[in-house]
Design brief:
two-stranded parallel ribbon, 177 residues, two-stranded antiparallel sheet, 14% strand, 6 strands, alpha+beta
Length: 177
């Protein structure tokens, strides 16, 4: 599809692209500018049958609801290209969050949003991940540091802070990553 743009339209599109609000490629020539469709990460993952990871999904705006149909594994119609994209076998949508989507951690994690229940229902299951055991956390950290004494001390301090948090004695936790 080819669309010829005015200079003002081109500038506006380039501004939106810089903000990450559009998935178009704008090509300028000496005579005109052409707007062409470019698949973003969602459509690309659907076409490839890949896993699409939405990290920190509880930080998203309500516009994330546009993924409702896709989260159910249904085809998506691209109006600009008049194409129906059917997710290839293996396509999965995974979201990570610091909260459970209910805003319960809004005071602990800046920017965390209360998420729409209907959107959350489109995920087939929820997994609540606890911190690893001291032994596992130590093994993980030892793959990134040769200072085993420091790693051991860090894991102990993190464990103590997490216990204090669970008991309500302190207001924060520590992640060793």
């Amino acid at each position: 599809m080819k669309i010829v743009l005015t200079e003002a339209e081109l500038n506006k599109l380039q501004e939106l692209k810089l903000k990450g609000e559009i998935n178009y490629t704008v090509t300028s020539t000496s005579t005109d500018s052409v707007l062409t469709w470019q698949d973003g990460p969602v459509i690309t993952a659907m076409r490839l049958g890949a896993v699409l990871l939405l990290d920190e999904i509880d930080q998203a705006r309500t516009s994330i609801m546009c993924l409702n149909t896709i989260a159910q594994g249904k085809p998506y119609y691209i109006k600009k290209t008049n194409e129906l994209v059917v997710p290839k076998k293996g396509f999965n949508l995974i979201g990570t969050a610091n909260s459970k989507g209910d805003g319960s951690a809004m005071d602990k994690f800046a920017g965390t949003q209360n998420m729409n229940e209907a959107f959350l229902d489109r995920f087939y299951f929820n997994v609540e991940q606890e911190y690893p055991s001291k032994q596992v956390e130590t093994l993980i950290l030892n793959t990134h540091s040769s200072d085993y004494e420091f790693v051991d001390t860090l894991v102990k301090i993190a464990g103590q802070l997490r216990e204090g948090y669970k008991k309500g004695d302190i207001d924060f936790r520590l992640t060793t990553r």
